[in-house]
Amino acid sequence: MAHHAETGHPTGHAPAVHAEEQTTTGINHRKLLMWVFLSSDCLFFGSLIATYMVYRGQSLVGPYPVDIIDVPITTISTFVLLCSSFAMVRALAATNEDNQGKIQFWLLMTAFLGAIFIGFQVYEFNLFRAEGLRIDTNLFGATFFTLTGFHGAHVTLGIVWLVALFFVARKGRLGPRTALDVEMAGLYWHFVDIVWIVIFTLLYLIGGFDTGPSATISIDPSVLGFL
Amino acid sequence: MATLTDVISRPAGQSGLWSWITTVDHKRIGVLYGVTAFIFLLFGGIEAGVIRLQLAVPDNTMIDPDTFNQMFTMHGTTMIFLVVMPLSASFFNFVIPLAIGARDVAFPRLNAFSYWVFLFGGLLLNASFLTNQAPDAGWFSYANLTEKPFSANAGLDYWALGLQVLGVSSLAAAFNFVVTIVNMRAPGMSLMRMPLFVWMTLITSILLVLAFPVITVGLIELTFDRNFGTSFFVPEGGGDPVMWQHLFWVFGHPEVYILILPAMGIVSEILPTFSRKPLFGYPVVVFSGIVIGIMGWAVWSHHMFTVGLGPVAVSVFTITTMLIAVPTGVKIFNWIGTLWGGSIDLRTPMLFSLGFIALFIVGGLSGVSHAVAPSDNQQQDTYYIVAHIHYVLFGGSLFGIFAGIYYWFPKVTGRLLHEGIGKAHFWLYFIGMNITFFPMHYLGLNGMPRRIYTYASEFGWDNLNLLASLGYVVLFVGTLLFILNLVVSLRKQPDSGHDPWDAPGLEWSISSPPPVYNFATIPQVEGIDQYWITKRRAAAEGHPITEPEAPVDVSTIHMPSPSYWPLVTAIGTLILAAGMLVDVGWDYIRFPIPFLGGIIAFIGIVGWSNEPAAAEHHDGEHGDGDHAIEHGATAVMDRPGAARPAVRLLCSVCGNRMSSDFRFCPYCGGAVENPDQANDEEG
User: Fold this and answer.
1) Residue A172's domain is classified under what CATH number?
2) What is the overall mean pLDDT for chain A?
3) Percentage with pLDDT > 90 across chain B
């Protein structure tokens, strides 16, 4: 749902306006919008993660996480995604330095590394499917595919955004005066990365070795009452 | 893609149908929200009428149980998501930029997008009637009644997808208003000088931003359960129906405050105006609102006392629920304190505000009675709950909203609503509301469950049910009178002038209806109730203000231009959601239509991005456009609170010390005096 923050989109408005725009807090409108959107998205992923944690170990039939989760493979894709955050930082730095060649290179590099991550995810989803885990197999499948799927959709949208920015950069329209366009994409991209770190920790490093229902710690939904 | 925007010329023009369809003017969008939501109010009202007609006599067979289920489900869903929320949004749109001294919201096109998505979401939800598959599982659609085996038709899909679309609208609007209020206040308007309605809008918007994603996830999981065979809420697959209840109420309880806080804000504007006295204890009312906003997150399980959460959870939620009554009670005392000693003018907006206070107290008291878990066990799922929710939502939210309509109507149209018809409307509503809903307390305590389509005569519920149904007739006549009032007032009422109520807000300093640019000169704010300060100073100087701000040539002010793209993006969003209703049954892609919607939305976003907020030809002598004043931005924008003289004032009545912000003592309403020098601003 709610990816309409992109509607307050990077390349909007006359390019020169942002630099001079004066606001009550001194924070640009679009940047503030992005932060408010990200706070909303926190609750979105928070609810998905809560569902995963509540249903952790509640699957009635296999395959269970220990049967199919491959931590080393996903460690590689996690590393790639983290590297893309570095590339994003370089893209913004290049924009501030007005180095047109580097802006294009690093934007494309960020999108490329993001695409590799998505490639790993497609591979993983297909592998799980082949090994008998589908979204309707058990609660693990439902919560896993929903959570990582929506994260993947976020990354995909980020890639579309970065590629769009790349085309804007090719026209020479990105530079210090329009650095906010890149910074907005960067905020989004870093946020999606951070969410993945949480997901990787919970679903792979901690939950990835869960066996069937009896052997794992289950969380009764009623304890949510204490939160 | 830039060619795309070149091909379609930018919409222009200030009149005609297309000027409304492509408008990005917050005032017009506010009117669109208001009119649309009012039409939905009639829908929801007719659904309520069907319910009351069916229940008027025992053993009634006017409609069958299925239709009855659809009626109460759509009545609740409509009234909450298509009436009270968008009517509040209508006030946010129209009033907020005017009240903070801005020329528009921060993102005018996003604002137009919010409206169109709201309209389409409402239509999608109601389209279920056309296929005779209206949702029928109640407005909170408890699992696992909502799962395929128990709700086989597409009704719950309409419900889930319609709410998703409405969620997009609410979120987009909430993002917009958080940024607008935080970032676009007139110079000098620090947070603690904001009008109360602006404060409540800010808190409401923050609640929306944080609460809606939770229901979004719940609805996604419900949709997956129904269409992709998952078992999120299906016990047979290991899922837990109680999980739905948690997700729904973690959203649902903040939602209650999303519904009531705007009305509290409206009332906090009206009571001071018609008491001729500043709001009693402004900072206390603000902080009560903030506390309600925070504590609203810690009470959701009081909707689930009978689920069996265990004694610890139930005790905790009983205590937090009782605690949240404290800031609410504080507000009520502040409103009463505002009235105390004021010269009260019982105009229609004031009557509705007083009605709000009275009825909200009744609803609040019955609310506290089911904060007590043992007592709630008796009341759960009875008409007592129905009575409570209608006292707080009808007597509370809707009375506040009608107060706001009567209050701001002259600002929107330049015409006052007719006072005589207005008063008749108020009394019919006040009396009809009590006749309809007060008997429900007794019905509930006598054991009548909610959501039963008929009942046997021997239960002894006949007379009170008939009374409640007669009350509906009174409300119906009241609503007709309101429509009559709209028609009569728009045609017959004389020009209201720019400031018919001698009101304190900035919006009253400009003409009615306001010019497209709102403020020719962005006002400088010196304190709470700025326009009172301005008017009293002018009166003291011997030239009272009788005219609004003089109009200026529109072309000298750079305003955002109309745009097609929000509408295109909204249509894409609608197809994206509605396409989920069509399962074509292909192997890999069972639902291809949403992709079409996604592509349309994408084209809309690209067009939107490539289009500058303001059209080029508009510039005139401003030249290159790059340095023209953006809408809402101001030439002189000092930080609020900067360089304020540190004058300390004393209340002449209670001796309270306060900052120079106050014209009247916020605690006792007494006149303020400056111990150091004579305060020459006092008229």
Assistant:
1) 1.20.120.80
2) 86
3) 71
Can you give B443-503 as a three-state secondary structure string? HHHCCCECCCCCCCHHHCCHHHHHHHHHHHHHHHHHHHHHHHHHHHHHHHCCECCCCCCCC
Are B246 and B335 within 8 A, CB to CB? no
Determine contact, residues A162/A110, Cβ cutoff 8 Å.
Answer: yes
Domains of chain B, first to last: 1-22+564-614 (no CATH), 23-518 (1.20.210.10), 645-683 (no CATH)
Could you count the other beta carbons within 10 Å of the beta carbon of residue A90? 17
* Interchain CB contacts (distance < 8 Å): A and B: 195
Domain annotation covers residue A12: no
A32, B179: Cβ pair inside 8 Å? yes
Mutate: best of A3, A18, A40, A170, partner B, most B CBs <10 A: A40
Q: Do A40 and B637 touch (CB under 8 A)?
A: no
The Cα of A18 is separated from the nearest Cα of chain B by a number of Å equal to 9
Q: Which two tokens stand for residue B15?
A: 């009149």
Residue span of the structural domain in which A73 resides: 28-213
B-chain residues near A40 (CB < 8 A) = 171, 175, 209-210, 212-213
Q: Order of strands, edge to edge, in the sheet holding B657-659?
A: B657-659, B648-651, B672-673
Q: Choose the mutation target among B117, B203, B231 for the interface with A, i.e. most A CBs under 10 Å.
A: B231
User: Which residues in chain B are closer than 8 Å to A221, comparing Cβ atoms?
Assistant: 240, 242-243, 246
Does B183 contact A at CB distance below 8 Å? yes
Q: Which of A61-75, B243-257, B406-420 has the lowest mean pLDDT?
A: A61-75
pLDDT tens digits, one per residue of A81-131: 999 999 999 999 999 999 999 999 999 999 999 999 999 999 999 999 999
Which tokens hold the place of B334? 């502040």
Specify if A224 maps to a domain: no
Distance CA B295, CA B327 (A): 10
The closest CB to that of B229, out of A41, A136, A139, belongs to A136
Residue A217 contacts B where some CB pair is shorter than 8 Å? no
List CB contacts (< 8 A) between A25 and chain B.
182-183
Compute the distance between CA of residue A20 and CA of residue A28 in angstroms, rounded to an integer.
10
pLDDT single digits (tens) B360-381:
999 999 999 989 999 999 999 9
Classified as helix, coil or strand, B101 is: coil
Please give the DSSP secondary-structure letter assigned to residue B185.
P
Whether the CB of B192 is below 8 Å from some CB of chain A: the reply is: no
* A2–B contact, CB cutoff 8 A: yes
Tally of domains in chain A: 1
Token reading at B504: 């304190």
Chain A residue with minimal CA distance to B177? A33
Q: Is A1 within a domain?
A: no
Q: Which run of H or E residues covers position B673? A: strand B672-673
Mean pLDDT of B146-158: 91
Closest among B207, B36, B19, B180 to B118, alpha carbons compared: B36
User: Quick check: B224 and A23 CB within 8 A?
Assistant: no
Residue B476: what pLDDT?
A: 97
Q: Are B381 and B450 in contact (CB under 8 A)?
A: yes
- CB burial class (10 A; 0-12, 13-18, 19+) of residue A129? middle
Q: Residues of chain B with pLDDT > 70: what percent?
A: 88
What mean pLDDT comes out for the span B530-542? 90
What integer pLDDT is reported at residue B433 of this predicted model? Answer: 96
When pLDDT is averaged across residues B166-192 and rounded to a whole number, the result is 94
